[in-house]
Amino acid sequence: MALGPQVSDLKETLLASIAEEVMSCQNCKLGATRTKAVPGVGSAYAHICFVGEGPGREEDLSGIPFVGQAGRLLDRMLIAEGLSRRDCYICNIVKCRPPNNRVPEPSEVAACSLYLYAQLAIVEPEVICLLGNTALRFFFGEQYSIGQVHGTILVKDEQRFMPIYHPAAALRNPQYVQVIQSDLRKLAALIQRTVD
Ligand code: SF4
């Protein structure tokens, strides 16, 4: 009797089926203005999931998250800590670009959240790294600020999170490069301790 797919194959298949749904989704008004939806990318068995706010201009054109200037900066900082995109899963709170990169509206976040929750449930990362205030507040509420909790470990429902500044902040203000780098170092050390 033929056995079903391996669990690892199943995870990839499930992520791919979410991506397919996202690409044709019209569950909120961002679906009408996007070029391409940006479901997420990376390893289905990643120890770290990065969650950003939403796609920017280059992501909207390519359909891949974090390929613009901020994404390239994040790549360089990950490599400096011995990490790479292959070790991670990367996605956003909303999968379609808000016009002019505005902050996504609560109704858009609510409409898109089922995809994010499904992605995280499939990947089951050791740590979810929240990039910026929108991702932080989605999970922890409006009273939280990235300036106060970046680089710390937060726990909710037995899931560990580490909020850090969004790499776009470092493009606007280079003093954040060192802050983000230092937080990524803590994240890499945490993962190392967890998987050893
Ligand atoms: S942002 Fe999310 S909910 Fe809105 S259309 Fe895009 S995929 Fe659908």
- In the CATH hierarchy, what is the class? Alpha Beta
Outline type: globular
Q: What letter string, H or E per element, gives the SSE order? A: HHEEHHEHEHHEEHH
- Segments where pLDDT lies below 50 for 5+ residues? none
CATH topology: Uracil-DNA Glycosylase, subunit E
| Estimated radius of gyration | 16 Å
Number of strands: 6
Q: What is the SS-derived class?
A: alpha/beta
* Helix share, percent: 40-55%
- Give the name of the CATH architecture: 3-Layer(aba) Sandwich
Beta-strand residue fraction: 5-15%
Structural domains: how many? 1
Describe the structure.
- With 196 residues, this protein is α/β, with parallel strands linked by helices.
- The protein has a single domain, classed as 3-Layer(aba) Sandwich (Uracil-DNA Glycosylase, subunit E), CATH 3.40.470.10.
- Helices cover 49% and strands 13% of the residues.
- It contains nine helices and six strands, in the order ααββααβαβααββαα.
- The chain has helices at 7-23, 30-33, 57-62, 69-80, 106-123, 133-140, 146-149, 167-172, 175-195; strands at residues 41-42, 48-52, 88-92, 127-131, 154-156, 159-164.
- The chain has a six-stranded mixed beta sheet with strand order 1-3-2-4-6-5, sandwiched between helices.
- A hairpin with a 2-residue loop joins β5 (154-156) and β6 (159-164).
- The protein is globular and about 40 Å long.
- The mean pLDDT is 94.
- It binds iron/sulfur cluster.
- Iron/sulfur cluster (SF4) binds next to α2 and α5.
